[in-house]
Amino acid sequence: MRLIGLAVVLAVSLLIAPLAAPAQQPGKVYRIGYLGTTAAVPPPIWDAFLGGLREFGWVEGQTIVIEQRNAEERYDRLPELAADLVRLRVDVIVAAGPVAPLAAKRATNTIPIVMTNHADPVGSGLVASLARPGSNVTGLSFIHPAVVGKQVEVLKEVVPKVNRMAVLTNPENPIRDLMLSEAEAAMRSLPAQFQVLHARGPDDFEAAFSAMRKARTDALLILVDPMLFGQRKQLANLTARSRLPAVSGLREFADAGILMTYGASLPDLFRRAASYVDKILKGAKPADLPVEQPTKFELVINLKTAKALNLTIPPSVLGRADQVIE
Predict the structure, then answer these.
(1) Is the pTM above the cut of 0.90?
(2) Closest Cα partner for 294 from 266, 322, 318, 254?
């Protein structure tokens, strides 16, 4: 009987062992590296990431330690910051935006990398395909170039008499050409002229807005970019001073004072990125984790800005808004 009991225990142990193998090592504190381009991650976005980790049982300071490295909108600093995270031997690198994942991948081909919001991971060479990344990179695809046309459409609905539209973009952004081609395609359907203006940093803003005033620009499209995102408050002030209705792709621009935004939700993407971190820390390989696309898009309208510009938002647009800022 004792031998039979021992055999049963061994059999049960063998059945349980494969299930327990991927789980994190008891008592180990894992180190997560965060590589970002802006000076700091806005609290709602960062809180969404931490909240997502907590949903899987990860608690900062207890089971995980997070090493943050932010380039403060200087793309040239990213390789150094990525190398620093590699030297720390972090267990996973979470990389935000279009530039940071590329810097992380150049720094390591072994440490898992989770993208939070890259617009073109296949075209940029980060992954082989969305279904099977095939490398040490996986995460979330932002696909904001595909919604640039929608941004132009909704701005046209609010400002129907657009004769001249400007596009503000950062030429240092690796997916700038992809977004710009989407904007150009959308604007071909409008009976309007458009001009492309470049800003590599805040020092270029005054010249860009001066060019808009000289051209008597009627509306502005701000293409999503980490540097422009970090300077969204200054851009909102400049559009107000120039009395320009503007649209962009992230709701944080509307929070800062831009007229309207349409695009994916960054807090939602960062929360979902936490699930990738959880899987990887429990043994999953990035190469086998499909890249996910956004599931939540939001139209946000700043009514306070609309009133300041003497614009009346059509009821058809207001009815589609996910949030109205008053």
Answers:
(1) no
(2) 266
Instruction: Check residue 189 and give its pLDDT.
Output: 75
Q: Is 287 exposed, middle or buried (0-12, 13-18, 19+ CB in 10 A)?
A: middle
138, 114 in Cβ contact below 8 A?
A: yes
Contacts of 312 (CB under 8 A, 6+ apart): 306
* Contact present, 133 and 284 (Cβ < 8 Å): no
Do residue 119 and residue 150 come from a single domain?
no
**CATH code of the domain in which 185 resides:** 3.40.50.2300
Task: Tell me the three state secondary structure of residue 34.
Answer: strand
The tokens for 242 are 């120039």
What is the DSSP pairing of strand 164-169 with strand 219-222? parallel
Enumerate the H helices of the chain as residue ranges: 2-20, 43-55, 78-87, 100-107, 148-158, 176-187, 205-214, 226-230, 232-241, 251-256, 266-281, 303-308, 315-318
**Is position 18 within any domain?**
no
Q: Give the model's pLDDT for residue 296.
A: 84
Q: What is the pLDDT, as a whole number, of residue 23?
A: 52
Joined together, the tokens standing for residue 160 give 């129907």
Range of the domain at 234: 145-265+298-325
- Please state, as a whole number, how many other Cβ atoms lie within 10 Å of the Cβ of residue 145: 22
What is the domain count for the chain? Answer: 2
Cβ-contact 256, 186 below 8 angstroms: no
Are 240 and 224 in a shared domain? Answer: yes
| φ, ψ for residue 99, nearest 5 deg | -100, -40
Average pLDDT, consecutive stretches of 10 residues, N- to C-terminus, the chain (326 residues): 39 40 68 94 96 97 97 95 98 96 97 95 94 97 80 92 93 89 82 89 97 95 95 98 96 98 96 98 98 93 97 96 96
Q: How far apart are CA 97 and CA 225, in angstroms?
A: 8
